[in-house]
Specification:
Shape: elongated
Distance between the termini: 64 Å
Order of helices and strands: HHHHHHH
Strand content: under 5%
Number of strands: 0
Largest sheet: none
Helix content: over 70%
Length: 166
């Protein structure tokens, strides 16, 4: 296939694929990103993609990217819930000492993480960067970013459990 064919495929399927992604993600920006990624993938393998199967190939890529996006959001939500529990906001019933202790625990947990796990975790969850963005910035693969995020979340859970057992 050549550029003209790619343009034709893009025009023919973009809207349909966008709505497919929207059904799965319910987020316009994430849907646009996923569809753009799918077309980038097709473009990078353009010489080996058959015109007859390109629609199927695009749908498969989008489905998989949507699943990855949903998994990423689930992990972010789990982390947010965990961090909310660890860093419950100060209220009238909590004394200053207890509040300072919680802050110290959070800092201690983050400081105990080793680089690059800590750096990747902070980039994803404090700076709200996407895995692909972090991978590009750190010149590593997305799978490496995922590995470090899993490691960081496991570390946080273990440390939190240790504090609760005290």
């Amino acid at each position: 296939m050549e550029n003209k064919e790619f343009d034709q495929i893009f025009r023919q399927y973009y809207q349909e694929l966008y709505f497919f992604a929207m059904q799965l993600l319910h987020d316009p920006e994430d849907s646009k990103d996923v569809v753009s990624d799918a077309f980038e993938e097709v473009w990078s393998h353009f010489s080996s993609v058959k015109k007859e199967t390109v629609r199927y190939f695009l749908y498969r890529i989008i489905r998989n990217r949507c699943i990855d996006t949903l998994r990423h959001k689930k992990i972010q939500m789990q982390h947010a819930e965990l961090m909310l529990q660890v860093t419950k906001p100060y209220d009238e019933s909590m004394d200053t000492l207890e509040w300072q202790e919680r802050e110290a625990r959070v800092k201690e947990i983050l400081d105990a993480m080793k680089p690059p796990t800590r750096d990747i975790f902070i980039a994803c969850y404090v700076d709200h960067k996407k895995y692909a963005e972090v991978a590009t910035l750190m010149a590593i693969s997305i799978d490496t970013v995922k590995k470090h995020i899993k490691k960081a979340l496991r570390f946080i859970r273990e440390k939190r459990q240790q504090y609760e057992e005290r």
